[in-house]
């Protein structure tokens, strides 16, 4: 659930639901680390699935 909570908080910040300072769009370090972590996890899952599918296709041929 923490990943979902962080994602929702990031989306709220992205659409401007929270206050902004004079610098414009600001993102916290924690939010940035969550985004990087989520992207890395998605990339790993995609690569694992791709490898699995490639292995199945190699068995067919």
Write structural notes for this entry:
The protein has 2 helices and no strands. With 61 residues, it is mainly α. Helix 1 crosses helix 2 (29-60). The chain has a domain at 28-61.
Describe the main β-sheet briefly: none
Structural class: mainly alpha
Average pLDDT figure: 81
- Separation, N- and C-terminal Cα atoms: 42 Å
Care to count the β-strands?
0
Helical fraction? over 70%
Sequence of secondary-structure elements? HH
Our count of helices gives 2
Shape: rod-shaped
- Gyration radius over CA: 18 Å
Taken as a percent bin, the fraction of beta residues is: under 5%
Low-pLDDT residue spans: none
Short summary of the structure?
This protein has helices spanning 2-14, 29-60.
What brief labels describe this structure?
61 residues
Write the layout of secondary structure elements.
Blueprint: H1 2-14, H2 29-60
